[in-house]
Amino acid sequence: MAWVGTAELVVAVSEAGGLGMLSPLTERGLKKELDIVRERTEKPFGLNIPLNSPISEQIVNLAVKEKIQVIATSAGDPSKFAPLLKKSGAVTMHVVASVKHAVKAEEAGVDAIVAEGAEKGGHLGHDEIGTFVLVPQVVDSVRIPVVAAGGIVDGRGLAAALALGASGIQLGTRFLMTKECIAHENCKRAILEAKDDSTTVIMRGFLPSRVLKNKFAISQKAEKGALIKEGMKARDGLLKGDIKDGAIWCGQAAGMIHDIPSVEELIKRIVDDAEKILHL
Ligand SMILES: Cc1cc2nc3c(=O)[nH]c(=O)nc-3n(C[C@H](O)[C@H](O)[C@H](O)COP(=O)(O)O)c2cc1C
């Protein structure tokens, strides 16, 4: 998660039995984040590489040099870097929002797919396919494992994802709302107050992104250079707590989040609840 996928969150997730994914887009910078993660945990963790970033090639090179064990590419064509990343020994995943892109990613040689439904927070696929519809179709179209993402915040979501054929889940908005996440208090408070209809999609047709409804979201138009501008707006919203003029990237499931637990409490709760539902 851009801006908030810092070492603190990654360490907390990996220590609690999940796979913490570091973002290269943080205030401290990737190398510093990596050093902190390695100092604080020996558990596996990964790195997300948004391929639409102007510095994606630099991040790939650093990931190879640093021998990062798990790489998840997103927002672009994974075929350019997949062979290099595989050669480095990393387990590779690619994030998709459609069956077509899942099939292409499998052909490019990635090891697993993250299928993200349009309920999710942040950048979306243009066709806005929901998780319940996307995940089973991706599962039926590829032979590699599929991780479900988008709108999953509790044990019910985990159980449902497994029932749809996913091998695991990826959480964004729910991890934003944890003690270890550096998101600003104002931002967390705004998400706590969210309801089912509190998010909206901005920049449709150009760079669709799901954010909390606020002054910025309502005034936003598709425009050239939006990726950079919106990235800065997201930093203002998520880190500086500007909940009127900043972009608060969060998913539709914000309305299902009513507390700010530690990552460890959260993961235990989700797994325990899913086990009860599935009679495990
Ligand atoms: C604040 C925020 C930042 C995100 N940044 C990224 C990113 O940089 N790269 C990426 O692949 N996905 C990013 N995502 C998507 C998440 O990795 C995750 O797949 C998604 O949030 C799942 O849906 P959910 O928000 O309903 O949990 C971000 C999501 C949020 C909420």
What can be said about this structure in brief?
With 280 residues, this protein is an alpha/beta fold. 40% of the residues lie in helices and 15% in strands. The strands form two sheets. It has a seven-stranded parallel beta sheet with strand order 1-2-3-4-5-7-8. Strands 6-10-9 form a three-stranded antiparallel beta sheet, with no helix packed on it.
Summarize the structure in words.
The protein has 280 residues and is of the alpha/beta class. The chain is globular and about 45 Å long. It has helices spanning 7-15, 30-40, 56-65, 82-87, 99-108, 131-141, 155-163, 173-176, 185-192, 215-219, 226-238, 263-277, and strands at residues 20-22, 45-50, 70-74, 91-96, 112-116, 122-123, 146-149, 168-170, 199-202, 209-212. Helix 1 runs parallel beside helix 2. 49% of the residues are buried. The protein has 12 helices and 10 strands. It starts with 6 loop residues before the first helix and ends with a helix. It binds flavin mononucleotide. Flavin mononucleotide binds at residues 1-2, 4, 23, 48, 50, 74, 95, 116, 119-122, 149-152, 170-174, 176, 238, 249-251, 253.
Shape: globular
Going across the major beta sheet, what is the strand order?
Answer: 1-2-3-4-5-7-8
Question: How many strand segments?
Answer: 10
**pLDDT < 50 runs, ≥5 residues:** none
Q: What are the bound molecules?
A: flavin mononucleotide
Treating each run of at least 4 consecutive H or I residues as one helix, how many helices?
12
